[in-house]
Write a structure and sequence with these properties.
This protein is mostly helical. The protein is 63% helix and 2% strand. It folds into 3 domains: 43 residues, no CATH class; 62 residues, Winged helix-like DNA-binding domain superfamily/Winged helix DNA-binding domain (Arc Repressor Mutant, subunit A, Orthogonal Bundle); 154 residues, GntR ligand-binding domain-like (Four Helix Bundle (Hemerythrin (Met), subunit A), Up-down Bundle), CATH 1.20.120. It is built from 9 helices and 2 strands, in the order H-H-H-H-E-E-H-H-H-H-H. It has a two-stranded antiparallel ribbon. Helix 6 crosses helix 8. The longest helix is centred in the C-terminal third of the chain and has 41 residues.
């Protein structure tokens, strides 16, 4: 929305205590000239009230369901099914799915629909092997300041709170924030870019590991943070490697169990059973 230039405004006809309406029912000035400050404040107020568009809403809802595991690789995702669920047309759904595909969160197959990527044991081994090497480098060389450390500590606190509430979506978000804050502290731009490109794949895998390693991960994050705050980089590197190997080992074991018993997959241990 924008304010109309003076030459486009209609002349005042009726005196009123309220400014007259312009295009789209917006008030633009009344029976007296308004200052630039007034117009700016009206514009800012209007911008704050603009609702989230349908494409963004659909994108956010579908993305959350992918991350939390409500949508998985066994389900066919179609524009018509989401349009019926959300009560909107197919057009914003199509745009949302295209965005999710560009981020690597789904795969669209022409005339068949969209699917959440299925990670094999080999995929998980490769991803976590690469992640282990990269994040060990980040811990070793990160340029830490008080702001980064504070952000990491807050991420641990919020992840623990989300776990207590069994809020998987926000747990995954705060877990990712811990690692992202550390990666951003790296002076190696290429290293940061590689980790950013892996982030969406890791979001799906983090959702899968919530029931497997969440309690242990929070404790390991805190130990990593404490070691870095004390300047013990070598210890922090070892702790990070141990953390990633723990997640990798448990996820691989879980996938192997599912492969052995596809009709009745083994239930993952609850967060309380991880202790």
């Amino acid at each position: 929305m924008r304010l109309l230039p003076k030459e486009e405004r209609k002349p005042d006809v009726v005196q009123s205590s309220c400014p007259p309406r312009g295009r789209l029912g917006i008030y633009y000035g009344g029976n007296r000239r308004t200052s630039g400050t007034q117009r700016s404040s009206w514009s800012a107020e209007l911008k704050l009230k603009v609702p989230e568009n349908l494409t963004q809403q659909a994108y956010r809802l579908i993305r959350d369901e992918i991350i939390t595991g409500r949508l998985n690789s066994h389900q066919r995702l179609t524009e018509s099914s989401f349009a019926a669920r959300f009560g909107i047309s197919k057009s914003p759904i199509r745009e949302a799915l295209n965005r999710l595909e560009s981020e690597g969160l789904i795969r669209i197959i022409p005339r068949r629909g969209a699917y959440v990527p299925r990670f094999t044991i080999s995929d998980v081994e490769e991803i976590y092997e690469l992640r282990e090497a990269l994040e060990a480098l980040v811990v070793r060389d990160a340029l830490l300041d008080s702001q980064t450390l504070s952000r990491m500590r807050e991420a641990v606190r919020l992840a623990a709170l989300s776990l207590k509430k069994q809020d998987k979506r926000n747990y995954v978000r705060h877990d990712a924030t811990f690692h992202a804050a550390l990666a951003q502290a790296s002076s190696n731009k290429r290293l940061k870019k590689i980790l950013e490109n892996m982030q969406n794949q890791l979001l799906i895998l983090r959702g899968q590991t919530f029931e497997l390693t969440s309690h242990r991960s929070i404790k390991q994050h805190m130990k990593i943070l404490e070691a870095m705050e004390k300047g013990r980089r070598g210890a922090a590197v070892r702790l990070m490697v141990q953390h990633i190997r723990t997640v990798r080992r448990r996820l691989v074991a879980h996938l192997a169990s599912q492969a052995r018993h596809p009709s009745s997959p083994k239930k993952a241990p609850s967060p309380t059973e991880q202790k």
